[in-house]
């Protein structure tokens, strides 16, 4: 088994070299073929997904699978349309490969170019969410990266059908290489992948906190991602409460099973008694369980019809629920809110609701998160919504890529030095030539063809 996995990885690694040089037109033709394949096979995808859903529901009844995971697993006709739209949005994006980032004249006739290039072979390991396959494959193809996919067993049928449709469409496109995309399906293969740092250049895990943390702790391969999605919304004493109700509701209820959903609501004490009762009624009607600090519990305890409030414990401030559960805390000031967010948060996405411009500025400067929202829902932290076409993941890293990551997170660069028999010896000794180090407004293609 290990040998078979290694053979797939080596095949993909070799294909990554060829894929890096495939033309933009060919890549776009392959992407359109992939989108059309999904559109032509909707029934096949839904049938495969239904098998996964039925199996997942059985596991949920046994307590072996959470409702959040079941929700992420579901594929609908509208989700397929979203997959198709995502691929076609990637077609519209400029090809990022081979772009001149910087150009510098070292000396007359000796020019240095910094040029964008693919990372190489990307390993994508994810739980549930079959829509990860078209999102990531389309971005990897456009950016010239080969990809190893390892999906969760709960989405086995869905992943296989979607992957096969996409891969066949891509490989059948004239000018495309074969073997650049590989699918692995068994649990044992995960540990095998983690040990293949000689071939795999980057890992992107998509799943639970424990799942991502396991990846980060058990491989030498660089990992792009986040272990937690503990997101906050702070409602300031100078907030427009009509905006606050809308943003706070959307941040929690619109889709609670994802990493950019709000998990903790912070409310300034000055407006808590005015704001919280109506907000709590909205949450209660939506089935949200509220876990309250002492002050918010006292305020809400006076409302008889609320179905689900409880006292928060310390662990609640550090918990990503991925469900209709919300922690609520009353704070005395924005400074206290900032301190709480930076202490308990995961540096993912945090928001402030206020009309005070100075507070907006201070909040954006002091919140150490990959996305900071001003009077807007945390749910906007998403590659598609950020105009990246699709998303390979959300990163809380502070190197290489941060926040919702699109194609820019799948690129690195290399240096190309264009000379004419130049040698370092000419720049040493008493009669050494001097470097000019002059910025150039040129592209590498012009220099290479000229030389």
List the helices and strands and how they pair.
Blueprint: H1 2-19, H2 24-40, H3 42-61, H4 67-73, H5 77-92, E1 100-107, E2 110-118, E3 121-126, H6 132-142, E4 146-151, H7 156-171, E5 181-184, H8 188-194, E6 202-206, H9 209-217, E7 231-235, H10 241-253, E8 262-268, H11 272-285, E9 289-292, H12 294-300, E10 309-311, E11 325-331, H13 334-344, E12 349-353, H14 357-366, E13 371-374, E14 393-395, E15 403-405, E16 411-418, E17 438-439, H15 444-450
Parallel strand pairs: 3-4, 3-6, 4-5, 7-8, 7-12, 8-11, 9-10, 9-11, 12-13
Antiparallel strand pairs: 1-2, 1-17, 2-16, 14-15
Word description of this protein:
The chain has 451 residues and is an alpha/beta fold. It folds into two domains: 213 residues, Aldehyde Dehydrogenase, Chain A, domain 1; 158 residues, Aldehyde Dehydrogenase, Chain A, domain 2, CATH 3.40.309. It is built from 15 helices and 17 strands. The strands form four sheets. Strands 10-9-11-8-7-12-13 form a seven-stranded parallel beta sheet, sandwiched between helices. It has a four-stranded antiparallel beta sheet with strand order 16-2-1-17. Strands 5-4-3-6 form a four-stranded parallel beta sheet, with helices on both faces. Helix 3 runs antiparallel to helix 7.
Summarize the structure.
This protein has 451 residues and is of the alpha/beta class. Helix content is 41%, strand content 20%. Pfam families: Aldedh (PF00171).
Highest-level CATH class of the largest domain: Alpha Beta
* Percent range for β-strand residues: 15-25%
Rg, Å, rounded: 25 Å
Low-pLDDT stretches are none
Subcellular location: Cytoplasm
EC number: 1.2.1.41
InterPro entries: Ald_DH/histidinol_DH, Ald_DH_C, Ald_DH_N, Aldehyde_DH_dom, G-glutamylP_reductase_CS, Glu-5-SA_DH, GPR_dom
Domain Aldehyde dehydrogenase: 5-286
